[in-house]
Write a structure and sequence with these properties.
110 residues; six-stranded parallel β-barrel; 27% strand; globular
Length: 110
């Protein structure tokens, strides 16, 4: 029982950090290649940039951009072409709008 609880706590702590991202300067450094689409309907994930790290809990599209790569759960690179992207995102204006449109891609940010 104790091992199960430890594994559960580990999983929860890892998933709580899933939306801390760092934008890397080179594609080869990235965990996930991201393309910003023009329209919400084209996105896999609707993203809201939060001002505080504590607001980036879960895998729900609320991203906190860290100052250093070591602080981030995922390193992302913004690609210039949609065809090179692992994930298509659309930036939204309000936190309530953030979230997955295509759940089959959510493993990319876990």
């Amino acid at each position: 029982m104790r091992e199960y609880l430890i594994l559960l706590l580990l999983f929860v702590s890892l998933s709580a950090r899933a939306q801390k991202v760092f934008s890397v300067p080179y594609e080869s450094q990235a965990d996930v290649k991201v393309f910003v689409v023009k329209y919400e309907s084209q996105a896999d994930l609707k993203v809201f940039k939060v001002p505080y790290e504590s607001q980036s809990e879960g895998n729900d599209g609320k991203w906190f951009f860290t100052s250093y790569p070591s602080q981030a759960k995922r390193k992302i690179f913004f690609v210039p072409y949609e065809s090179r992207a692992d994930l298509k995102i659309f930036f939204v204006n309000y936190p309530s709008q953030a979230g997955w449109r295509r759940r089959e891609k959510c493993h990319k940010m876990e």
